[in-house]
């Protein structure tokens, strides 16, 4: 098809699809030469990814084609439609090759290409009979395979989103718990410091009380002594043992004082 007869956007998409078709052709030729089952499986997975990308591009080609349908001539729209059907048919042929190689490897895993319709009713029968199908049947089959692939991709995206959300919620919960533990540790440190200060204060109060008790005891003994002396003096005023204590000696008679002054 003459690329000058279509828009630049359609020409670019068609070029990308053709590049993928060439890569798929070379990839399947390379796959025939690989003997190691593990390498063959990895190569088959890479080819499957390329087919998925090709399916996405074909769908984009169809979308742009419909948008430009009103601006194109009838002949150009017909050629574009034939080109799209040809691309779908070629993609289905690669799907059939992929299925054959997967069967030869006896791969028991879930077929990675289920999203393109290989396996669940749209598989071998429709692919192998693609050459006998009408254009409308080819279009319907291609649409069905692309829709199924979109659904599979959306399910995968949903699983990834759910996983990310669970991870975010778990991280938030762990962060909150970590902050709570940090606050608890700080509160415990504050309580320990308060207890230490209270213990020191109690010791200081105890020492102060002990000192005050000693002073009170000494004052009490002094008062007891003074009271005892006073009592003894009152009871026995001629006691010579306490006569020399200031303030407690009996008054000296005036006569005695004159006698002492005459001498």
TrEMBL record:
Matches recorded under CDD domains: SNARE_SNAP25N_23N_29N_SEC9N
Q: Does the keyword Transmembrane helix apply?
A: yes
Instruction: Indicate the principal place this protein occupies in or around the cell.
Output: membrane
Q: Which residue ranges traverse the bilayer?
A: 215-235
As recorded in UniProt, coiled-coil segments are: 44-71
Ordered alphabetically, the record's keywords are: Coiled coil, Membrane, Protein transport, Transmembrane, Transmembrane helix, Transport
Q: Which GO terms describe its cellular component?
A: endoplasmic reticulum membrane; ER to Golgi transport vesicle membrane; Golgi apparatus; late endosome membrane; SNARE complex
Q: Does the keyword Cytoplasm apply?
A: no
InterPro entries for this protein: NPSN/SNAP25-like_N_SNARE, Sec20_C, T_SNARE_dom
Location of the T-SNARE coiled-coil homology domain: 143-205
* Pfam families with a match to the protein in the record: Sec20 (PF03908)
Membrane-topology annotation of the record: Single-pass type IV membrane protein
Q: What's a single GO BP term from this record?
A: vesicle fusion
**What are the protein's GO molecular function terms?**
SNAP receptor activity; SNARE binding
Q: Give the range the annotation lists for the signal sequence.
A: none
Q: Where in the cell is it found?
A: Membrane
What protein family is recorded? Answer: Belongs to the novel plant SNARE family.
The name of this protein is Novel plant SNARE 11 isoform X1
Q: Which organism is it from?
A: Elaeis guineensis var. tenera
**Which gene is this protein's source?**
LOC105059600
